[in-house]
Amino acid sequence: MGRKPKFNSAQKLSILKEAKEKGIYEISKKYSINNRTIQQWCLLYKYQGIEGLKSKRTNQSYSLNFKISLVTAFMESGDSLLNFAIKNGLKSHTQLYNWIKRYNRGTLKAYQPRKRDLNLTKKRNSARKTTFEERLEIIEFLIKHDINYHRTAEKYDVSYAQVYNWYKKYTKSNNDPESLRDNRGKRKSIETMNDLERLQIENRLLKAQLEQQKMEIAFAKKLVEIRNRGGKKN
Questions:
Q1: What is the three-class DSSP state of 82?
Q2: What sections of the sequence does the record tag as coiled-coil (predicted)?
């Protein structure tokens, strides 16, 4: 039986609210918590919501394809290890760090799930068919939510690899929405959309980018405020 967590999700959220008002340093002393732990909770809540603050009692299983996709995406991201790991559904950077080490050594393997986890694993890694409009909506959501592949895949019931590959195609095409079309089978003309349709779609995706930039700026300001309050008390 695992050790009972010191704080439940509701208590963690309450501590985060206190840290926002009074600063990390004061609150970390009050509750005997490391500053980095509070900062990690802050990221968990930002990217995973209240679910991210809950302690898991069982190990989650991940396929080899998922691990490789995540490691590859991190190497191309330029993001910090902790931020990227939490943004993509992990609880900390440790798991991703270990996967990167094993990937570089050529020893990365899939976790062998128990029987009761098999159905969940199959569902998470299965690729379903999607329409062009669905893929547009998925990429729009992905951009709005800080390129969070894990959250996007879960929301739209598609695989991590699908979301990753669609976004890669989109960015490689210089943000051309036509790149999200599935051209297998019938070969469709590149001019499938008229000018108005293209402008409307490009406008949707541009708005998503602007929304995300505003959210990033607001979050960065809050984090600076919290750290400044903590520094003054130090």
A1: helix
A2: 196-223
